[in-house]
Design goal:
Radius of gyration: 14 Å
Organism: Halobium salinum
Strand content: under 5%
Shape: globular
CATH class: Mainly Alpha
InterPro entries: Globin-like_sf, Globin/Proto, Hemoglobin_trunc, Hemoglobin_trunc_I
Number of helices: 7
Pfam families: Bac_globin
Largest sheet: none
Keywords: Heme, Iron, Metal-binding, Transport
Distance between the termini: 37 Å
CATH architecture: Orthogonal Bundle
Number of domains: 1
CATH superfamily: Globins
GO molecular function: metal ion binding
Length: 119
């Protein structure tokens, strides 16, 4: 059996570092911060750790809402989705995740674009 991406990148501690870095970037961007104004960030960070862990093959089950429903009230446009995805990709790379594993994780994120955008 091959080692999961989750294990290769360093498990929960590494995923938590990536998620913290990711939200630091997102919340520092004036184009995005309003989306998170009324959001309980501790809960959101927990869901994001679960999500990244699950798509990386970790021993975690994602318990967040269905993507279309969870984002419907935000009226997210393509530009903002792409910005958020770029910040996640940068956080993965800058926290030592290999290009191959970044690609695998980001392909899972790309698959969520239409549901997040309500399409």
């Amino acid at each position: 059996m091959s080692e999961s991406i989750y294990s290769q990148i360093g498990g929960q501690e590494a995923v938590e570092r990536v998620v913290d870095d990711f939200y630091d970037r997102v919340l520092s961007d004036d184009r995005l911060v309003d989306y998170f104004e009324a959001t309980e960030m501790t809960e959101l960070r927990t869901h994001q750790v679960q999500f990244v862990s699950a798509v990386a093959g970790g021993p975690v089950e994602y318990t967040g809402g269905e993507m279309r429903d969870a984002h419907a009230h935000l009226d997210i446009d393509e530009e903002h989705f792409d910005l958020v995805a770029a910040y996640l990709e940068r956080a993965l790379r800058e926290n030592g995740v290999s290009e191959r594993n970044v690609g695998a994780i980001m392909s899972e994120v790309a698959a969520l674009k239409d549901p997040v955008l309500g399409r």
